[in-house]
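U., I forgot to send this yesterday:
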Amino acid sequence: MTSTYQQLQRRYDRPCLPLDDVRREYLPHISSDEYLMEAIRTGTIRLRYVRLGGSRLGPPVVYLRDLATWLDAHDPSNTKPATDPVA
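Result:
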């Protein structure tokens, strides 16, 4: 059985995805990146994003490992508790 992280690695050819792509693919009910970033900051959505280049102005991205952890935490067939409550 392959892990969610391994599946994401096979699907995408890079270590992180733009937040906009994550929103469109996994959270289509959210209409804007700004709303998603606010939901993440307030803890409504427990997904971690970072800005590339270490700057406040860098584009927001989600690393595949963080996305996999978040997806696993929301999988109803997953009977194991999430190991990282922040992700």
